[in-house]
Design brief:
Pfam families: ECH_1 (PF00378). By secondary structure, the protein is an alpha/beta fold. The chain has one domain (about 5-205): 2-enoyl-CoA Hydratase, Chain A, domain 1. The protein has 10 helices and 9 strands. The strands form 2 sheets. Strands 1-2-3-4-6-9 form a 6-stranded mixed β-sheet, with helices on both faces. A hairpin with a 2-residue loop joins strand 1 and strand 2. The relative contact order is 0.13.
Length: about 220
């Protein structure tokens, strides 16, 4: 059974409609914090979608009021998977996920339905298009948590925000609003939450474009 068709998945929900694979983080009580097992499932889902010729666009979003609060490090303490206690294995999972986003050949879109923190922010430059609701904010509190910057952000952030603002975000944990993020070109468009359906309507129109044309644009860039 394909993992994207697995009805037993609870932390990640998948649906396919008109050539669009909608991947939804589904831990609203935990602010959609991402566990190691979720990373593994996301990698498998993205890999399967590459092989599926009926899928043209992949969307990542979240259930509830948060897009994602980032990595769920607390889950490592209660995990039953021995690999989750091996720091090298954990790092390899993170690395594989980021590499999958970088190399992903189809159109990859994030619909940020609420606040994004940590990896949920730093992975966004690896998407082709990012939409956000007006209540969303973007925060990378790595220094406060005693963590190093992740998700290629020490490379992507200076290119997007400039050195000063990138440093403010990565080292000082500056919280950026959706409108400011659009100003810097970090996201494409800001929508009111109640108007988010406009995004889905627009994206369905994109599936009318041929996969070859989309591939050609991605290859050019």
């Amino acid at each position: 059974m394909l993992i994207m068709d697995n009805k037993n998945l609870s932390d990640i929900l998948c649906s396919v409609d008109n050539g669009i694979l909608n991947i939804r983080l589904n831990r609203p009580k935990n602010k959609n914090a991402i566990t190691i097992s979720m990373y593994k499932d996301l990698i498998k889902i993205l890999h399967e979608s590459i092989q599926n010729s009926t899928i043209y666009i992949v969307i990542l979003t979240g259930n509830g009021s948060f897009f994602s609060s980032g990595n769920d490090f607390k889950s490592l303490l209660t995990s039953q998977d021995e690999d989750d206690f091996d720091i090298k294995s954990v790092i390899n999972v993170f690395k594989e996920f980021i590499e999958m986003l970088i190399r992903y050949p189809k159109l990859l879109i994030a619909v940020v339905n609420g606040p994004a923190i940590g990896i949920a922010v730093t992975m966004l430059p690896l998407f082709d298009i990012v939409y956000a609701v007006d209540s969303a904010y973007f925060e990378t509190p790595f220094t406060r948590l005693g963590l190093s910057a992740e998700g290629c952000s020490t490379y992507t952030f200076p290119n997007i925000f400039g050195k000063s603002k990138a440093s403010e975000m990565l080292y000082l944990g500056y919280k950026m609003s959706a409108f400011e993020a659009k100003h810097y070109g970090f996201i494409n468009e800001v929508y009111k939450y109640q108007n988010l359906d406009e995004v889905w309507t627009y994206l369905k129109k994109l599936t009318k474009l041929s996969l070859e044309l989309t591939d050609g644009i991605r290859t050019f860039y």
